[in-house]
Amino acid sequence: ALHYFIYKLENNTADERTWRPNVLAFINSTKKDINMLRIMANIVSNRGFLTVITIINQPIKDKVRLKNLKISVRNYLENKSIKAMVNILYAKDDWAGIQNLINTYGFGPVKPNTIYFEFNSEKNHLSDLTKVIFQASQNDKNIMIFIDNNYNISEKENINVFWGGHKQNIGFMIAMAIMLQEEINGQDNHVMINSAVTEKEK
């Protein structure tokens, strides 16, 4: 059945009405990033796939230890009611590893269409960020970037969505904002849609 399903997907024409979220999330610390992973899991729901990737810069030669680490992360997520596939992969450089996986991760037509990662301006270079964004864009992936992982959203702060006017991505952006709003304790924040217009468009 799986064999037939994959070949059928390969021959199907892309249709936004049947689009399903397949999220590839690059995570440094599962426990620290658990709230964002909940949001990712809510977006995916039972309609797509969530894959959690941790990139390590030192290879783990002991296969048993590596397997146990994956099981430990998977069990932790399951205890938090988060369904996800888990992988721990080696790369000498985190950003090079992310770019490589954006290009290659998946099987046949079953590939991630949405990429999530963090960016810390104090630790990372802007050039690395732009390379990853370009790579994701070239591969027709949605991109979700959490800019500052030390920032806690207040219950009374608004969630600002900056929209460039393209109809094809506004639904995804609003859905993300609402998911984030629901994850915050409290009802005092609002989703605000912001868009810049020219003098002619007023």
Features:
alpha/beta, two-stranded parallel sheet, single chain, 202 residues, 5-stranded parallel β-sheet
What does this structure look like?
The protein is α/β, with parallel strands linked by helices and 202 residues long. The chain contains six helices and seven strands, in the order αβαβαβαβαββαβ. The strands form two sheets. Strands 3-2-1-4-5 form a five-stranded parallel sheet, sandwiched between helices. Strands 6-7 form a two-stranded parallel sheet. Helix 2 links the parallel strand 1 and strand 2. Helix 2 crosses helix 6 and helix 4 packs parallel to helix 5. The longest helix has 17 residues.
Write the topology of this structure.
Elements: H1 2-11, E1 22-26, H2 34-44, E2 49-56, H3 63-79, E3 85-90, H4 94-104, E4 114-118, H5 126-138, E5 142-146, E6 159-162, H6 167-183, E7 191-194
Parallel strand pairs: 1-2, 1-4, 2-3, 4-5, 6-7
Helix pairs in contact: 2-6, 4-5
Please outline the major beta sheet: 5 strands, parallel
Proportion in helices: 25-40%
Structural class: alpha/beta
State the separation between the terminal residues, measured CA to CA. 54 Å
Which stretches are poorly predicted, pLDDT < 50 over at least 5 residues?
A: none
Q: Which strand order does the major sheet show? A: 3-2-1-4-5
